[in-house]
Each structure stands twice: as structure tokens, then as C-alpha cells.
Amino acid sequence: MRVISGSAKGRTLTAPRGLAVRPNTDKVKGAIFSMVDAEAFRRAADEQNEFAIRRVLDLYAGTGALGIEALSRGAEHCDFVESSAQARAAITENLRRTGLARQAALHSFKAEAAVSTFTAPYDLILADPPYADSGLADLLNTIGASGIIHERTLLVIEHARSVELPNDPGRLHLIRSRHHGTTAFTLYASGASDVGEPPQP
Q: Which pTM value belongs to this model?
């Protein structure tokens, strides 16, 4: 597992054995950020204005791979939310390896607590919850009604392909979904005037 683009490109990331998280493969991570970049470019063109991803929230951060990828690609700050002490140790080590620790804050909350506690909005929210989590729709509805999104926020959630997610949770609107095998990732945006491409079956 490594950083695939940006200032920390090629740096290897650690995922301790026995860690109860699902590390993102380089292929899935690349597909996620390709989808984010394409939507950011589209919105910038439509609005004739720069669409910059500066503040990032990484929920269920695990090893921190997604948030670290965002920082490597130019984000200014990332809040990592992870309830497992072992996983937080891996995030700390990975931030050290990539030289990005000064741009990060690590929180020992559960994702639901972070969403209800944080008040500042984010440009990009990344969520990689356990596939067995039955509360994804509730989480998305809570995020969609919260103060952590603004009129241009993007959110990507990774989930099992078999899981159906809501189209319009609060102020968020489903833009598109992609899948690799049994893994799917779905992109939402706030303030979207259209829904982009239809989700894949």
C-alpha cells in the first residue's frame, strides 16, 4: 500500500497485521480520486470558478490512506477520525512516513460522534465504514443535515456493492457510483444541480 500521486507519491504506508480495518488497494484509491477530480473539474468549468479541495475529513480512517492521499494531492488540512487505538497508531506512523503530520489532526471519536460534534465545513469528506455497518443511510442523512458540509462539498463513501444508498440524504445528492468486484464507492455532492451519470447496476 502506497501513496499514488502528489508530493508523497511512492511512499509506502503501514497496515499492522491483525488490524480490524480494510486497507484500500491502490486501484480502488486511484478510482476514488479519479472520480473526485473529474467532479471537481466539472464543477469548476460549470461555475467558471476554481474548485479547490482544501479541508478534508477522513471518517473511519483506518490506516489514513485516503486522507493522506488527499493531503499529498494538495489539500491543506485533514481531520482523521478513527476509534481504534491500533489504527490511530498506524495513521500516526503513516503521517510521519509521508511528512504530512503538520497538516493533520487525529481524533479518537466514532464517526457518528464526529459528525455531530464538528462544526466547520469540509470541501471533501471520505468515508470507508465497515461493510457490515447497517447504519450508512442514517450516517449520510446526518451528514447531509449537518454543518460540516457547505454548498460545494463532495463526499465519497466506500461500501459493499450489494448495499443500496439513498439518492438525496439531506443537502447531499448522489452523483455517480463505481464498483470494483464486490466493492463500490459512491460520490455525493451538495448543491448539485444535476445528478451526473447514473449509478452502475
A: 0.90
